[in-house]
Amino acid sequence: MSNFILVTGGAGYVGSHTCKRLAARGFRPVTYDNLGQGHARAVRWGPLEVGDVCDTKRLIEVMHRYQPAAIVHFAASSLVGESVANPVKYYRANVGGTISLIFAALQANVDRLVFSSTCAVYGTPERLPITESEAKAPVSPYGRSKLMMETILRDCCTSYGLDVVALRYFNAAGADADGEIGEAHDPETHLVPLVLGAALDPARHITVFGTDYDTPDGTCIRDYIHVEDLAAAHVAAVERLISGDLNGFRTFNLGSGTGISVREIIDFVQAMTGRAINVREGPRREGDPPILVADPSRAETALDWRAERSDLQTIIGSAWAWMKRTAPQSSGDPDPDPADRVQPRTAVGEH
Predict the structure, then answer these.
(1) C-alpha span between 290 and 343 (Å, rounded)
(2) Is pLDDT at 343 greater than 90 in this prediction?
(3) Which residues are CB-neighbours of 271 under 8 A, at least 6 positions away?
(4) What is the CATH number of the domain that holds 39?
(5) Quick check: 168 and 254 in contact, CB under 8 A?
(6) pTM here?
(7) What residue numbers bound the domain in which 188 lies?
(8) Which residue from 192, 92, 101, 185 is spatially nearest to 142, judged by alpha carbons?
(9) What is the pLDDT of residues 274-310, one digit of tens each?
(10) Do 23 and 165 share a domain, yes or no?
(11) Considering 32, 90, 91, 142, which one is annotated as catalytic?
(12) CA dihedral defined by 147, 345, 311, 269, rounded to 10 degrees?
């Protein structure tokens, strides 16, 4: 069997960490990415094939060339706010791209796929911690597009005999322990790098959206999971699909099972770095649930996986080391007030 694994969106944040983990496990990751959000410099553990996931002909060509044993599907647009402003973009890229990928996979006889899904499919949960059986009621076009992608994949498992694992992960954070890759979104929307950026640059500030939630400190609580733990889960799913231990359509939550508030993140960063952070308070944003915490027990059992690096010290420490190392390369931002260019989001499905 081929040891090639096709990784769509493999030049992105979670995708590049997964490629590194795949290579460490003896696979040869083939990154398929249009480089619209990803970075060519993050492709270090296998070949890069530049292409759009909506380009079915190009996908078929790449699959025929490498004959991958499985696909890991990260390629998607993933900003909640942008999805509200431009839903057509999200349905075209996410839903249309997934249909294109499935068609190409069927043409190339590739029948195993790991799908990067999100906790955004749950919306505001009725029960905590969130299990995979929680009602699906996404509150944004982004979340709805991901749920549509899951539905399409489930139907294709029934009709075409595909084997698919959908990994619904919570708030990805942290950076590679070796310092080779890390989080580099443009614009940055994730809380941890934005808080660290404010610690690094006193001119920046953090806006806390909502301080009156029914939580101990009034701010939203989220489940943060280290990106290397996410990578390990994706590789475990690939290995179990190839071995035949998983078949049909399976869903798994990926989280630490521990909730951390926005205020706790800010306080921890200030204590760890010894730097004051300029914090501003803003109103709640529509669609932000007070608490999102995963029940990862199904993944722990079926994938023999644990969130081993998702303590706050490791997450923040690795992200801080990455940010300090890469700050000189990103300090030439022409924006006269980079603090006002983007603010942190704590909405469902941040990753």
Answers:
(1) 18
(2) no
(3) none
(4) 3.40.50.720
(5) yes
(6) 0.92
(7) 175-223+257-294+309-329+336-340
(8) 92
(9) 999 999 999 998 778 999 999 999 999 999 999 999 9
(10) yes
(11) 142
(12) 170
